[in-house]
């Protein structure tokens, strides 16, 4: 895939797609293909596969590759597919990156190595090794709440000099730090936290990589569309309309994967995750129905 100069490398409104499973817990490529096609038809510019919402810690390398191939066949060559390949092991991450490239991914999403908590020099070396391993553009995934390791703004500034490091998925909750990097680099910033989609976009982010978009893709995109049209009041109104569902899905103490699958026909979650209880499902359904009924 060739990206036009001056445009976000993977589009604006991306969905961090869940990974559908069968009732017995196996990968369901047919359901994944349908979900991907539906998301694109409903306004998603691109899809992120095998990420946090895709339950990447509990899917095998073969399943990750099979998912990319199934989704690529479903959506065709024009839809950007970004593959999560981050692990705690640099060599394993490199291997996954090469498999993702061979399977048809257009880009890579890479977290810093988790658990071992490497210092920033080692974090930087890790990303450079992965970026040098394929011909694909790479997005840094700054999510210290899960990895235990921040990609510090100064590290991002140095990595921005690498020709294949083109984007950041930002879950650092550091609006000041992110704004400084946006102002000083050409990196495409994508909000990975629903409540920061609009604030980050307003200071120059490229768009969002949204878990809520699994169930409300048009509503997530509409906020960005209104802002691009110059109607900031309407963008704020649409953002506020989306927040009750986003809060229940992303800030209720349950992972987004669990809450998405409570609303979506995408099969079970894999252990150690557990399905949402009935009270949670009812609350999610109520907020979802209210969002759909709004104008």
Automatic annotation (TrEMBL):
<feature type="site" description="Part of a proton relay during catalysis">
    <location>
        <position position="52"/>
    </location>
</feature>
<dbReference type="InterPro" id="IPR005263">
    <property type="entry name" value="DapA"/>
</dbReference>
<feature type="active site" description="Proton donor/acceptor">
    <location>
        <position position="141"/>
    </location>
</feature>
<dbReference type="InterPro" id="IPR013785">
    <property type="entry name" value="Aldolase_TIM"/>
</dbReference>
<keyword id="KW-0220">Diaminopimelate biosynthesis</keyword>
<keyword id="KW-0456">Lyase</keyword>
<comment type="pathway">
    <text>Amino-acid biosynthesis; L-lysine biosynthesis via DAP pathway; (S)-tetrahydrodipicolinate from L-aspartate: step 3/4.</text>
</comment>
<keyword id="KW-0028">Amino-acid biosynthesis</keyword>
<feature type="binding site">
    <location>
        <position position="53"/>
    </location>
    <ligand>
        <name>pyruvate</name>
    </ligand>
</feature>
<dbReference type="InterPro" id="IPR020625">
    <property type="entry name" value="Schiff_base-form_aldolases_AS"/>
</dbReference>
<feature type="active site" description="Schiff-base intermediate with substrate">
    <location>
        <position position="169"/>
    </location>
</feature>
<feature type="site" description="Part of a proton relay during catalysis">
    <location>
        <position position="115"/>
    </location>
</feature>
<comment type="similarity">
    <text>Belongs to the DapA family.</text>
</comment>
<dbReference type="GO" id="GO:0008840">
    <property type="term" value="F:4-hydroxy-tetrahydrodipicolinate synthase activity"/>
</dbReference>
<comment type="subunit">
    <text>Homotetramer; dimer of dimers.</text>
</comment>
<keyword id="KW-0704">Schiff base</keyword>
<dbReference type="Pfam" id="PF00701">
    <property type="entry name" value="DHDPS"/>
</dbReference>
<dbReference type="InterPro" id="IPR002220">
    <property type="entry name" value="DapA-like"/>
</dbReference>
<keyword id="KW-0457">Lysine biosynthesis</keyword>
<comment type="function">
    <text>Catalyzes the condensation of (S)-aspartate-beta-semialdehyde [(S)-ASA] and pyruvate to 4-hydroxy-tetrahydrodipicolinate (HTPA).</text>
</comment>
<keyword id="KW-0963">Cytoplasm</keyword>
<protein>
    <recommendedName>
        <fullName>4-hydroxy-tetrahydrodipicolinate synthase</fullName>
        <ecNumber>4.3.3.7</ecNumber>
    </recommendedName>
</protein>
<feature type="binding site">
    <location>
        <position position="209"/>
    </location>
    <ligand>
        <name>pyruvate</name>
    </ligand>
</feature>
